[in-house]
Amino acid sequence: MGRTKRLKELTIKDNFMxxxxxxxxxxxxxxxxRVLEIPIDRVDVSKxxxxxxxxxxxxVRLDVYAxxxxxxxYNVEMQVERKPALGKRSRYYQSQMDMEMLLTGEDYTELPNxxxxxxxxxxxFGKD
Length: 128
What we know:
Pfam families: PDDEXK_2. This is Rpn family recombination-promoting nuclease/putative transposase. By secondary structure, this protein is of the alpha+beta class. The chain has one domain. Helix content is about 25%, strand content about 25%. It has helices at about 15-25, 25-35, 85-100, and strands spanning about 45-50, 60-70, 75-80, 115-120. The chain has a four-stranded mixed β-sheet, sandwiched between helices. The longest helix is centred in the last third of the chain and has 14 residues, at about 85-100. The model has no long low-confidence stretch (mean pLDDT about 90).
């Protein structure tokens, strides 16, 4: 196991620092507006939201989970390690987020928009 970093050694790529910076609603809102090029009035931010529906099935831990005034949901993940199937991972995260959006009997038209954003310090398409 690696040594514990001191606070002054942390960068935005460290899980603790990324979470601390993104918990500030202005920081999170600013990042979302820049990445998605959409205006957002306000966001409510949660750090490390876990979604586990059944112990037999793979759950997810969302690094940063936010909701805006239109009920749009955002998941923001910092990726510093190249792992296989990043696209499928993103798809799975989004499907798990959708699972808690509709109650029995509700129409699919009521499903809010969701975004899963992976910020990578590498080319996720392998072209670098």
